[in-house]
């Protein structure tokens, strides 16, 4: 590692103890939302596998990208322990991770299921995993170094890596980083909405407002409740109808591994919504 100005190369190494809390933790199992809130619907696993099997090798198209800012807070102070390296006092330091809302306020980073800190290899436990916000990592050592922090979501491939500079120039300091979420699941979208709107929210508001001005030939919230009541054969037809009639604004997500098909009804074009409404009415799962 390159030396920092006025700090010898040796000072960039940390010879620390095991973290004061936590340790290596096995990854949590992924949770898949199967509920409906009148906006989005997650259809049955069997239907997903049947429709997507021929094209399962294709990469999913990115329909939604959500950006959020996270804050990494570092605190450090001297501790009364014999120095390991002459001239460098022993330190205790902690690192915490928060997500910022629209007003810049700190909120628990519940969008991440775990944070993995990759510390300097001189630590007895150089890889440390934490699964509860604020993902506090506490250690002791005498040197500064750069660490990679891996932040995971439940999404497949949902890992964000942040490079964090641990230094002892100030007792406390903060760093802001921008992270992105591609095609978040409905469950993750709900969590992200706690800190700000999503790209599809404006269109949702417009459709709701438009629905209040004139009577529509369909009711999206009733449709959402009705779709999950359909049998497997009917669900297959619904999914095929969505695939055949969607437009560029349609947000769908096929999680083949989980056997889940998610669709945001408010992003469907009006002709397709009318088609789906007629289908659920004919199926007898909603009253016209």
Automatic annotation (TrEMBL):
The keyword Nucleus applies. GO terms for biological process: regulation of DNA-templated transcription. Residues 1-39 are annotated as: Disordered. GO terms for cellular component: chromatin; nucleus. The keyword Nucleus applies. Signal peptide: none annotated. It is found in: Nucleus. Keywords: Nucleus. It holds the Pfam family YEATS. This is YEATS domain-containing protein.
